[in-house]
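[Meeting: bench + compute handoff]

Bench side (C.D.) handed over the final construct sequence. Compute side (W.E.) agreed to return the predicted structure before the next meeting so the bench team could plan truncations. Sequence as handed over:
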Amino acid sequence: MRKGFFPRLALSGIRKNRSIYYPYILTAVLTTAMMYIIGSLQQISTDYSGTLAFSLQLGIVVTSVFSVVFLFYTNSFLMRRRKKEFGLYNILGMEKRHLARLIFWETALMLAVSLTIGLAAGVLLDKLMHLVLTRLVGQAVSLTFAVSPGSMRYTAALISITFALILLNSVRQVYVARPVELLRRAEVGEREPKARWLLGLLGLISLGTGYWLSATVKDAGMMILFFFVAVLLVIAGTYLLFTSGSITLLKALRKNRRYYYKPDHFISVSGMIYRMKQNAVGLANVCILSTMVLVMVFSTLSLWLGMEDTLNSRLRSDIDVRSASTDVSALEAAVDETLRQAGASREDTWTYRYLSFSALPTPEGFVSSVSFTESDALIASPATFQVMVVEDYNRMLGRSETLAPGEALLECTRGNYEGDTLRLLDETFAIKARISDGLGAGQALASIYDYYCLVVDSMDTLRRLDSEQQAAYGDLASAIRTSMSFALLPASPQLSEQVAALLRSQADADGFTSVAERTELRENLMTLYGGLLFVGLFLGLLFIMAMILIIYYKQITEGYEDRERYRIMRKVGLSRREIRRSISSQILIVFFLPLAAAGLHVAFAFPGIVTMFRALSMTNVTLIAGCALGSFAGFAALYGAVYLLTARVYYRIVSE
């Protein structure tokens, strides 16, 4: 054969099959660009904090794995459409080694286009993504332009290896198939699948268990562990229900004579039964991808928008100082001396002595966790108690409360204890009144457990509780501390950071155990949540691109498979209007089933996500719900637009 024959034939094949090759090449280009961008941002992650660097590292791992799997998966659609053409070449005299050369040149051309355009687009868009990232994390914007050689090498190597593996797999399929099989493979229909009730029931149980875990586990620490188990169960249940449960449902509909024996239902149900085994995996993939996009976007968006709520729950004032001493006057004097050196003063000051420890609830009261077994601890959610004396409570809030021995005031910062008496360790308190003064606001609210503030009558009672928890917990016991939080005058972020630095420099001399400052905490939260939002949006865009391509190829594949079937129906007397109604019915059911299932998954995942967010001091459920609903509405609109575009392709194919 003449030199250059196979490259020209490969280019001609790509052009003739542009309806399936061009979207694939475009996706490969975008995947390459996104790989370069996330790799470039990860290369410069040393300029950011450790949390942001970790987020970007996680992003590049997920993007790398998903890119390989996704390009492999979508290439199967191309091979399915080209096998008839390869079979024709084989029958006309082209040997399989020649077909292998043809596939090699097609793959090489796609790889060259993907790397050239993809890396160029990645370099051009890299700075834009860098600006978006720095805006989200609140960092200074750099206007310098640079190319990341490390990211370019990594991206080129990953995409090249992926295409090489795709080439080997495609050649293998050609070599193991006979010419007649290649010629007829695109027209081979699916055998009618069997209704597998057991697998459908197993899928329902798996899905229900995942939902149950997300909805019932109320302990934030345990939910972080169980949520991943719930995700795996939901994924397994989704695949089982789409593959086995859907067939079982369709066959049940076929047995319903009133429903089945109507032109629209007869055509759509019978057609879906014969191809559901093949299509179900694609539908399940779309459902899982949709769920991942929704969960990532609304959860990271909630954290970023709720940053001020989280900040207020972590720190009630500008500066919070903790001391191992119980001498309130000495602590205030040391802080005032530091403020004098900085030329500042304080207001809205809260200074109090407290004891903080955890206990497990029982029907008899709250006891130390050492009396519980590990299995008991999984069932009973621990609670954190912050105990202070009424003298400090009155001084801070200007109150005149009096408490007799054995009486207490209770604030349920996070929890729902409703008893009139409360047993804590070996002490029993009569709840004189329930208060809501925000005593739990501060660093201690970062606890992932239920949180209660208890005001007791005297330091003697506080010391008895300290002795009891010391005896119970030993080396793990807490100690009585003094907390002082205040607003700074004049209000200035720079002055606040300066005062915090001075206090930390004098920590050893003055006995400070910790110094928290509002501006620094806000920067840390913005870096963490901004980085998570960026990675969430980035991966969401990648998954949406994958979902659109899967839907597009699914519509094309079904269109070519349905074209002959609908042509026969027109010949036997079915009108175009009835055929179009049948097509619309089938497409609507199949197309929007993954979206409905994804919405159901998100609804049941919502309680688990809210519970986990408690570990991050994010308790604004209204904001989280609003982000979830808004994300679903926006995604549904995009999904509908994809439906309208791809449905046109399907109608055009079946109408030819």
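W.E. noted at the follow-up: The first strand starts at residue 319 and ends at 323. C.D. will use this when planning the next construct.
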